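quick one
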Amino acid sequence: MARVAAGPEIERLIQLLARLPGLGPRSARRAALHLVKKKEQLLGPLASALAETRDTIVTCDNCGNIDTMSACTLCRDPARDRSLICVVEEVGDLWALERAAVLNGLYHVLGGTLSPLDGVGPEDLFIARLVERAGAPEVTEILLALNATVEGQSTAHYLTDHLSGCNVVVSRLAHGVPIGGELDYLDEGTLAAAVKARKVM
Ligand code: ZN
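structure w/ zinc ion:
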């Protein structure tokens, strides 16, 4: 059996930290050590922030975003353009688009993608509510900002079919050369998509 240097409480902290994305056992040990060394400045405030988040976090009934109230801050914001709904797979994608500050519409978080092999069907995602929202008279465009993966794209096709009865334009993000990308380093699929989506200068 491997020897352990710390008591069960610290071992438990390390094991929990190791379950976070991007943290393996080694970095979890370093993080735990850092936290216990900085008890006042870091461990205490982190513990309070975690408890507060646990007690207040909810999923928005309207759009699937995570916030401390439902409807969420974005859905309530009167400055948002209510004619555009941007559909994303996960809350992290919504955060990424908000950081880029390129859209001023509303969002809809599906909670994943369709994946028959993993048993994920339309009823497992937040799709029925999206179709409902797309039917509202003020909505004119649904932007499908899904990942450029097989699952993301087949989900986009499914949604396009199911939104065809609504009086909205269904758009999707362009595929192509990333900003700062060099052609020589791109895979054939990305290059082919970029050629197909070419624009007149
Ligand atoms: Zn919302």
